[in-house]
Amino acid sequence: MKLHYYPGCTLKEKTTALDVSTREAMRRLDIELVEPEGWTCCGAEYPLTEEKIVGLAAPVRVLRQVRDEGGDVVVTTCSFCYAVLKRANKAVREDPLKHKRVNAYLRDDIQINPLTKEKTTGFEDYNGEVKVLHLLEYLRDRVGPPRIREHLKRDLKGLAVAPYYGCRLLRPHKEMGVDEPDSPRIFEDFLETVGCAAVDYAFKQECCGSYVSVSLPAAATEASYRVLRSARMAGAKAIAVTCPLCFYNLDHRQEAIKETFLDFPGIPVVFFTQLLAWALGVDKELLGLKEHAVPADGLFDEGRGAEVRT
Amino acid sequence: MTAKTTKKKDKRIGLFVCHCGVNIASVVDVEKVAEALKEYPGVTFSTDYVYMCSDPGQQMIIDTIKEKHLDGIIVAACSPTLHEKTFQEAARLAGLNPYQIEIANIREQDSWVHTDREKATRKAVRIVKSHVEKALRNENLEPIKVDVKKRALIIGGGISGLQAALDIAEHGYEVILVEKNPSIGGKMIQLSETFPTLDCSQCILTPKMVEVSRHPRIKLLTYHEVDSISGFVGNFKVRIKKKPRYVDESLCNLCGECEKVCPQIVPDEFNMGLSFRKAVYLPFPQAIPGTYTLDEAHCLGLSPVRCGKCKDVCDKMAIDYDMKETFFEEEVGAVVVATGYDLYTMQALGEYGGEKYEDVVNGLEFERILSASGPTGGVVLRPSDGKVPKSVVFVQCSGSRDTEKHNPYCSKICCMYTAKHAMLYKHRVPDGQATVFYIDVRTGGKGFDEFYQRAVEEDKILYIRGKVSKIFKEGDKLVVWGVDTLTGKKVEVEADLVVLAMAMVKADGVQDLLKKLKVSTDIHGFVAEAHPKLRPVESLNAGFYLAGCAHGPKDIPEAVAQASAAAAKVGDLFAQNELVHEPTVVPVNDELCSGCGICITMCPYGARSLDPERGVAVVNEILCEGCGACAAACPSGAAQQRNQTDDQIFSMLRAMLRE
C-alpha cells in the first residue's frame, strides 16, 4: 500500500538516518512511502510565528499537492514539519480569512512538469482535505500495535529507552491533539510495542534548547543536559527522539555538555524509527548510525537481539 | 383547523402608554402612539403617562377601568417580566380578570435598541396594535389550585442537608433525609479544623448530627438512595432504594468483634485512602447511625464460598447476609437537593504527576493528615515513608481558574483553607518551611483577611505569587517548578510534601439522579439556580430547592446560610394550604389530538403524557410552565396555549405586518 510521506529538508541533509530508517521500517510493514511531487520546505517554525499569511503558502502548497495526487493522509516524522503542516492545515480549514488569502496566493501557481516541461496552472482551492499524521500516530491508529508485533523479527529484550517528546509533538495540544500533553502515552506505548521498556522520567516534555543552540549555546547545553541527566537517573540506556533538532541538541551537544558538566558520562540518542526498523529486522548498516555523535552501535547488537522469527 | 378563539367585537380595550421617564419617551413619541391607537377598532380609551408603575399611574388604570367599563387593557411599557404582576394586581383591584392585561414591550424591544425616533415610534404603534388584537381574544382565566403535601425530602446528609433538615423540622414539618453513605456528616466531618476560628470541625458538626438523628420529625435514611421522583410541586412521589447494609442497625451494639475477625482489608474512604479499614466497618467513631456496615463490594461472605467469620462472632445476631436491596415510596411536597461536591481528580493533573507521587496530596487528604482522628493521629507525616515533612509546598488553584486545560471557575474556599493548612502545619512542625503558590489570595468573608494576614505575619508562611507549572520527583525529594510573577523569575522549590488545593467539581454519581429529577445544571454540572441574584436557592423546576456545594463551591457558613434559606423557602411553600399555578397552560383538544406524541417529547417539564385508553395526549396542568413548545410542535392544532392561541398569534402577526 502507498502512503504519502513528507520527509522535510533536514531528513535529506543532516539527518538522513531518520529518513532511511523510516523507509526501511515502513517497507517491512508493507507500506510504500511516496513523497509529494516537487515538495518544498515547510517553512520550519516561521509560518506560524508570523502573522503574515504568505508564510502559510509553503506548507499549504505541499498539502495541496498531496491532495491532487489523490492522497488523503500525509505522514511526517520530524516534529517541526508535523507541527507546521498540521497547524497550517487547521488554519486553512477553520479560518475563512486565511483560507481565502492563502488560496488567492496559490491559485496562480505555475507548475512545470520536469519531464515534458509542460506548464500547468489554475489550481483548485485547498480546503484542508488532507489529514496530517505523525508517524507515531499513524502507527498507533492506522497500523495498530498487533500488526506491528506480527512483523517483529528481533527481540529488543526490554531495552530501557526514555521517550523524549520535546515540545512540538504535543503542544499546543488543542491543535496537535496527538495525546494528553502532561501525561502522554503514545511514545511509551510505541516503545513497548517494539519490545523496549519505556522509562518514565520528569523531563520528557521539557525543552531540548531548540534554536537557542544557535544564539545561546550555553543555555541549550544546560537545557539538554537536564533532559539527559533526568533520563539517565531514571535508568535509561538510551533516549529515543522523533525530531532532528532534538537529536542535534541531545546527541551532538553531548561533547559540549561533557566540557561543562564533567561527571556526565553520556547516553546514546536514537530515532524511534531506528528502533522500529531494527526490531522489524532491518540490517544495521541501513540505520544510518554513522550520523550519531554519541555511538549508538552498541544498542543495535545482533548478540543481544536474537532472531525470534524467521 | 385551529381552535378558534372568538374575537369579541364589543370588547372595550384601554391603552396606557408609559414614558418610563425618558427611557421610552426620549426615543418613542409616546403621545403619538396613544393618539394613533385612539381610532383603532376595539380601543375605547387611550392615554400616556410618565410612570405607569407608580402609585398614581396604577390608580389611573384602576379608575379608568371602572369609569370606562373596560374589558381589557394594554400597558405599553417595559418587559412583562418586570411589571406584569403589578398591573394584573391593579386590574384585579378594579374588578377586571387579571388575564385581560396585556403588556406591550416598547422599552427593551424598542426604545432601548433604536435611535431613530420616527421609526421607533412606528414600531411602537405596531407592537401595541398587535397586543390590541390579542387582548380582543383574551379570555378570563382562573389560577389552577392544588393541595400541598407538607413533608420535605432532603437529598444529601452533609452540613447543608443537615441544616436544611433541622430548619424545616423546626418549622414544624416532617422531613425525610436520604444519605447514600453509611453515615451522615458529608465532607465536613472529614475536616480537621475550620477557618477562620480554627474550631474543630467534628466538634461543631457532631451535635447537629445527633440532633438530626433524634429529631421526632426527621426520618433519617442512611445508606439509601433516591431512585426516582415523579409528580409535581406539592405532590411528589419519591421512590427510594434501601441498600443492604447486611447489619441490622437496631441490633448492632458496636462491640467491634466483627471488624477484628474480618480478613478483608480495603482503603478507608473516610481517611481518603491514607489508612485501611475492614470490609465490615464503622466509617468513623461518631458515625450516625452508630452501626457497622458490611461493604458488599469487598466482603468474602457474600460470594458463593462464604467466609462468615463476622457472623460467627456477632453475639447480637445482627449480621444477615441475605439482606436484599429494597424499594419503597414516600410522598413529599418539596425536595432540597444538597448532594455536595467532589474534588477534581489527581489523574487530570498530569503536570503535577497525576497519581504518580504519593507525597502529592489533595486538600482533603491533608485535612485527614492534620486531623486528630486521622491516620497519623494529627501528627504531620508524609504518606510515602511516614517521615515528618520539613518543607511543604501548597499549590492554590490546582485545576481551578484554568481556562486552557481545567476548570475555568474559582473554587472559592481554597485560599482560606490553604492559609489554614499552612498555619496548622507550622503549628505542628515549627521548624518546617511552608510555601504557598497563589494567583490571588481571595479572602472575602468575615475575619478572613485577618486570618490570612496572621498566616503570613505570625506563622511566617512564604507566599509566592505565581502558578506552579510542574511537579516531579528527584531522588526522594519533590521538585516544584513555578514562577514568581512579582520578580518575573522562575522558581524551583524542593519539597517533602506537596498539597494541592484541588478544584471543587460536581459530585460524582449524582448526575444521573439530577437528570432524572429534571433539575437543570450549569455547564460545570452544578445545580442551576432559578435566578442568579433574586432566586438563589430555588431550582427552575418548581418544588426543588438547592443547598450547599451541589450549587457551586462554597464554605461552611455560606452552605449553612443557603441551607437555611432553602428551608425558609420550603416553609413558604408549606405555609400555603393550596398551591396556585398560572392558568396560561396548554390543554389538549381531545377531538383534534391524534395521539402522535410529539408534544410529549417536546415538553421539558414532563407535563404531558399519552392516555393509553383514549389514545390522546393529556396534560398535568400543575407541571405545565406554559413555555408553548408543545403548541408550536403540535401538527394538528390540538395543543393551544390559553390566551396564546394560534389564532391570537396570527392576529398579532397580521396587525404587526399590516401597513
Radius of gyration of chain A: 20 Å
Mean pLDDT of chain B: 94
Count of discrete alpha- or pi-helical segments spanning 4 or more residues of chain B? 17
Q: Which two chains share the most extensive interface?
A: A-B, 9 and 12 residues
Oligomer: heterodimer
Largest sheet properties of chain B: 5 strands, parallel
Overall 3D form of chain B: globular
* Mean pLDDT over all positions of chain A: 91
CATH class designation of the largest domain in chain B: Alpha Beta
Distance between the termini of chain B: 27 Å
**Span from first to last CA of chain A?**
23 Å
Largest β-sheet summary of chain A: 4 strands, parallel
Q: In CATH terms, what is the fold-level topology of the largest domain in chain A?
A: Rossmann fold
Labels describing this entry:
heterodimer, A: 310 residues, alpha/beta, 2 domains, 14 helices, 10 strands, 42% helix, B: 659 residues, Rossmann fold, FAD/NAD(P)-binding domain, 5-stranded parallel β-sheet, 17 helices, 24% strand
Structure summary:
The complex is a heterodimer of chains A (310) and B (659). With 310 residues, chain A is an alpha/beta fold.
Structure description:
The complex is a heterodimer of chains A (310) and B (659). Chain A has two domains: 2-133, Glutathione S-transferase Yfyf (Class Pi), Chain A, domain 2 (Up-down Bundle), CATH 1.20.1050; 150-299, Rossmann fold (3-Layer(aba) Sandwich), CATH 3.40.50.11810. Helices cover 42% and strands 10% of the residues of chain A. Chain A has helices spanning 16-28, 46-49, 57-68, 79-94, 96-106, 135-143, 145-151, 173-176, 186-193, 212-215, 217-233, 244-252, 254-260, 272-279; strands at 2-5, 32-34, 73-76, 111-112, 119-120, 131-134, 160-163, 197-198, 238-241, 269-271. In chain A, helix 1 runs parallel beside helix 14. The radius of gyration of chain A is 20 Å and the shape is globular. Chain B has 659 residues and is of the alpha/beta class. Chain B folds into four domains: 13-143, Rossmann fold, CATH 3.40.50; 156-223 and 335-340 and 507-536 and 544-575, FAD/NAD(P)-binding domain (3-Layer(bba) Sandwich), CATH 3.50.50; 257-313, no CATH class; 344-503, FAD/NAD(P)-binding domain (3-Layer(bba) Sandwich). Chain B is built from 17 helices and 32 strands. In chain B, helix 1 links the parallel strand 1 and strand 2 (43-49). The two termini of chain B are 27 Å apart.
